UniProtKB/TrEMBL annotation:
<feature type="domain" description="4Fe-4S ferredoxin-type">
    <location>
        <begin position="31"/>
        <end position="64"/>
    </location>
</feature>
<dbReference type="GO" id="GO:0005737">
    <property type="term" value="C:cytoplasm"/>
</dbReference>
<dbReference type="GO" id="GO:0046872">
    <property type="term" value="F:metal ion binding"/>
</dbReference>
<protein>
    <submittedName>
        <fullName>4Fe-4S ferredoxin</fullName>
    </submittedName>
</protein>
<dbReference type="InterPro" id="IPR047927">
    <property type="entry name" value="YfhL-like"/>
</dbReference>
<dbReference type="GO" id="GO:0051539">
    <property type="term" value="F:4 iron, 4 sulfur cluster binding"/>
</dbReference>
<dbReference type="InterPro" id="IPR017896">
    <property type="entry name" value="4Fe4S_Fe-S-bd"/>
</dbReference>
<keyword id="KW-0677">Repeat</keyword>
<keyword id="KW-0249">Electron transport</keyword>
<feature type="domain" description="4Fe-4S ferredoxin-type">
    <location>
        <begin position="1"/>
        <end position="29"/>
    </location>
</feature>
<keyword id="KW-0004">4Fe-4S</keyword>
<keyword id="KW-0408">Iron</keyword>
<keyword id="KW-0813">Transport</keyword>
<dbReference type="Pfam" id="PF00037">
    <property type="entry name" value="Fer4"/>
</dbReference>
<dbReference type="InterPro" id="IPR017900">
    <property type="entry name" value="4Fe4S_Fe_S_CS"/>
</dbReference>
<dbReference type="InterPro" id="IPR050157">
    <property type="entry name" value="PSI_iron-sulfur_center"/>
</dbReference>
<keyword id="KW-0479">Metal-binding</keyword>
């Protein structure tokens, strides 16, 4: 699954620089995660880094974007591929 930032977000700015896939960006009111880029840090780290640094614990799994570990690994491979 991709992750999701809920409306409990306090815009503390700590999650965005931790994302190795640049999936986190400023939204209109709170930070948002692009599910097309979120791999839950698979391929980079053992745990999602945004969840690790979030002081208000507002980054759960996104039930709208269910993906297996294999699908997340495939997404990581596509995102990090060097164009030919």
């Amino acid at each position: 699954m991709a992750l999701l930032i809920t409306d409990e977000c306090i815009n503390c700015d700590v999650c965005e620089p931790e994302c190795p896939n640049n999936a986190i960006s400023e939204g209109e009111e709170i930070y948002v995660i692009d599910p097309a880029l979120c791999t839950e840090c698979i391929g980079h780290y053992d745990e999602p880094q945004c969840q690790q640094v979030c002081p208000v614990d507002c980054i759960p799994l996104d039930p709208q974007h269910v993906e297996s570990s294999e699908q997340l690994q495939d997404k990581y491979t596509r995102i990090t591929a060097i164009p030919a």
